Write the structure tokens for this entry.
Amino acid sequence: MDLGFLLQALIPSWNSAYLLLGFFAYLAIAGSIVPGKIVPGVVLADGTRLHYRCNGLVSLLLLVALLGISAKMGFVSPTAISERGLELLSTTFVFSFLVTLALYFVGYKSRSKGSSLKPHITGNLIHDWWFGIQLNPQFMDIDLKFFFVRAGMMGWLLINLSVLAKSVQDGTLSKSMILFQLFCALYILDYFVHEEYMTSTWDIIAERLGFMLVFGDLVWIPFTFSIQGWWLLANEVELTTVAIIANCLVFLIGYMVFRGANKQKHVFKKNPKAPIWGKPPKVIGGKLLASGYCSPVPYFYPIYLLILLIWRERRDESRCAEKYKEIWSEYEKLVPWRILPYVY
């Protein structure tokens, strides 16, 4: 891909703008009318609290079903996103920039004294635009912070599905692509199953809504988290059965720790006395949770695997050096990293 083609592909288009606005319109409508659990947010400094309709899972499944039916009937192309990925990237970036400028000016003029909309102005324009001025700005009764993070997670799945459709269309579908798609889909679906946990995260309860969060939600999450899929479209990588099993084990172990730790944190914030693994939680200063996955016990298996892999690599290195001699030296020059590039 030469520079001229890249720059041309990055130019925003009206088609990309229509796709983006249509996606946001669906999310706004579905988020307001699709049934879902109403979850109270944390109590803010002024004693108020927001309430969030956690209907993301149903909204996502409905959207995928509608798009699938539309593609089957020929109304939309399943590869529409993958064929204009760079256009969508630049269009979404421009949208994020414009939205955060609007948030800055609206927040700057706000005279609200409430915790959600009270302006926090430092006088540094770049700082206030980057980090935001208001904690929970709204548009047409839609909490924008919750809306944007939902859009980013759903957008990530839609990009992946379009990349998958392109792979099938081109006849390049591989085990690597299938594995990547499964891991991402499981992560995203699990996120929406536990969407209420998001209401107790730092981003929601403490960060003001500025370019940092909007860009992170709308651009960084969907477009960088899908990079492996884009790469696999142009590069054939076949995995052995052993590699597939190893990838699945690492994913499952990592995800169990990730999900378990986040669940414990969420439950602790809602009820500091709730038991962790059947025992009273160890708490520091009445506010910091120090039990659960802070223990080294849950990490036994990944630590064991790390030691095993390094030990195995060392033995393989010695055998290969003895067997292949000069050829192995040439190989080491071409492939200098033993396991993790630039680390080991």
In short: Residues 241-270 form the longest helix (30 residues). The two ends are 31 Å apart (CA to CA).
